[in-house]
Amino acid sequence: MPIVVRIDVELARRKMGVNEFAELVGLTPANVAVLKNGRARAVRFSTLEAMCRVLDCQPGDLLEFVDEEQVADQAVRR
């Protein structure tokens, strides 16, 4: 999937566990795991806002677009 979720990076920077983060955001730890592992198909803006508020970050700190075609092309060239 071309959208990579970087919640784990932001949690590690803040030394915050999934359970604490889930409680502060208002999600279940299972739903945080779905987001964290890139299995989510959608994220509500209200959830994204809550995550940014708790982590004091911007949406771009949590989500990144990775062009899979470029990554594949680079791998072939090596």
UniProtKB/TrEMBL annotation:
Domain HTH cro/C1-type stretches: 13-62
Protein name: Helix-turn-helix transcriptional regulator
PROSITE patterns per the UniProt record, alphabetical: HTH_CROC1
Species for this entry: Actinomycetospora termitidis
Top-level taxonomic group: Bacteria
Transmembrane stretches, start-end: none
InterPro entries: Cro/C1-type_HTH (IPR001387), Lambda_DNA-bd_dom_sf (IPR010982)
SUPFAM superfamilies reported for this sequence: lambda repressor-like DNA-binding domains (SSF47413)
Pfam families in alphabetical order: HTH_26
